[in-house]
Amino acid sequence: MTTSTPTSTGTVDQPILSVTGLSASYGFGRRAPLVLDDVSLTLGKGRTMGVVGESGSGKSTLAKVIIGTLGASAGTVEVGGVDVGRAKSAQRQALRRSVQMIPQDPYASLDPRMTIGRTLREALAPKGGRESTYRDRIVELLELVSLDASAVNRYPHEFSGGMRQRVAIARAIAVQPTLLIADEVTSALDASIQFEVLGLLDRLQKELGFGCVFITHNLGVAARMCDDITVMRYGKVVEQGPISLLAAPADPYTRLLVGSVPDPDGRFLTDPSAYDSVIAG
């Protein structure tokens, strides 16, 4: 593995996420193939770590282990200094609030039988409560993601894909998490809508200060969104460091990924602002 040390203050000294020697598999027994193999990464407060690689590289499996829906066979995941695998009941409840995930598919992630207001109320108070009690906070969340208060009484099928993803983001930030996992959050959206959603996430992170693990197969998106990057292949980390490594990757696999970016001048990777102008135009 090729590793560069991130240079920004806080990335190593005060991590909100620390993954160390993480391995995981689907299935049981010695013959169960490893999907993650000795993965380590560190994320500082308010920063975004891009996790990139082809399909099957282990990116989404890493997300599942971080949020606790899949157990690790080796290694540790710590969020805010708490070991996810050894957390006691009260700690697990706190972790469920402090770590939130924005899913890939805005069409499948919202219950079609529930209004947007009820969806957000359940995020705020999973054990129940009147929607009217949380009305002000629900409207505030909608405004944060640039949706009108009238969305409270509407259903998911009344919204476009981009608007549904805004609702999913509102649901994720409802409990003021310290860490967001964004798993291919723009892959199901049209190009112009991708631009809007990425801009929204960027603004919210600046306003709210959460850290973000940003999982994507698109290096152009990673260059636009991320401070640091972890490149994965077959469940292993092959290269890691500040996002600037994409301009001069050391590992042959990373060079291959960079070479596949559909921009002959490589502008997305050397000047991430070029992504904005191209996708907007």
From TrEMBL:
Keywords from UniProt, A to Z, are:
ATP-binding, Nucleotide-binding, Transport
Q: Which residues form a coiled coil?
A: none
GO BP, one example? transmembrane transport
Record's signal peptide: none
The molecular function terms in GO held by this entry are: ATP binding; ATP hydrolysis activity
SUPFAM superfamilies in the record: P-loop containing nucleoside triphosphate hydrolases
**UniProt xrefs under InterPro entries:** AAA+_ATPase (IPR003593), ABC_transp_ATP-bind (IPR050319), ABC_transporter-like_ATP-bd (IPR003439), ABC_transporter-like_CS (IPR017871), P-loop_NTPase (IPR027417)
Q: Which CDD domains does the UniProt record give? A: ABC_NikE_OppD_transporters
Q: Which residues form the ABC transporter domain?
A: 17-259
What family name appears in the similarity comment?
Belongs to the ABC transporter superfamily.
Q: What is this protein called?
A: ABC transporter ATP-binding protein
Which species is the source of this protein?
A: Amnibacterium flavum
What lineage is on file? Bacteria, Bacillati, Actinomycetota, Actinomycetes, Micrococcales
